């Protein structure tokens, strides 16, 4: 007979992360002037992430006076790295704590760090919970028509698509801007006829 006490283990790891216990790596996340530091244990990172396992197995370039590894990641924000560290330490993500932009940034960062399971979890969450992924594209265009009308590919759209969008009476855009876009489109298509 065996007993499992996963919740206790997870809680202990979460406490270690929050209290920065026994850290030996300092992660500098974000770009100047918004660089912030996170502290973590290299054993946990290497055990949970092949990216860190590879990175920390080589001669590490930067070590501070206390013997801590210095890991700089300017392309990943502090908030995103916090989410990733919590996942690495506890295997949990509280999606309610983060807006969709942070979650999408985490998806990109997870890909860079080779966190395939985290990618799967985030994709599953987004598909199930983000309503904007289920919206009709024409409805999205009605709400944000500048996305379409200012696109470099706008002039290459076919007449039925333009007609479908213009038939909507709820386009969230000034009529003069719509008119100018249509003139550009007509000019390109009129030249094709000549």
UniProtKB/TrEMBL annotation:
Q: Which PROSITE patterns does the protein's record reference? A: BTB
Q: Which InterPro entries match?
A: BTB-POZ/Galectin-3-binding, BTB/POZ_dom
Q: Which Pfam families match?
A: BTB (PF00651)
For the BTB domain, which residue ranges apply?
23-97
Q: Which SMART domains match?
A: BTB
Could you identify this protein by its name?
BTB domain-containing protein
């Amino acid at each position: 007979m065996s007993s499992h006490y996963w919740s206790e283990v997870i809680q202990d790891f979460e406490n270690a992360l929050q209290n920065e216990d026994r850290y030996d790596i300092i992660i500098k996340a974000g770009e100047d002037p918004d660089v912030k530091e996170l502290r973590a244990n290299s054993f946990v990172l290497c055990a949970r992430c092949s990216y860190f396992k590879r990175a920390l197995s080589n001669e590490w370039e930067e070590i501070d006076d206390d013997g801590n590894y210095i890991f700089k990641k300017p392309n990943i924000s502090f908030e995103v790295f916090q989410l990733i560290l919590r996942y690495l330490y506890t295997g949990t993500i509280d999606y309610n704590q983060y807006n969709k932009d942070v979650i999408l940034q985490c998806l990109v960062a997870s890909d860079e760090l080779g966190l395939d399971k985290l990618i799967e979890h985030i994709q599953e969450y987004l598909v199930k919970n983000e309503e904007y992924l289920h919206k009709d594209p024409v409805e999205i265009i009605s709400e944000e028509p500048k996305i379409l009308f200012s696109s470099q590919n706008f002039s290459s759209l076919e007449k039925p698509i333009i007609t479908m969008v213009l038939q909507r009476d709820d386009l969230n855009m000034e009529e003069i801007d719509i008119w100018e876009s249509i003139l550009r489109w007509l000019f390109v298509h009129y030249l094709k006829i000549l």
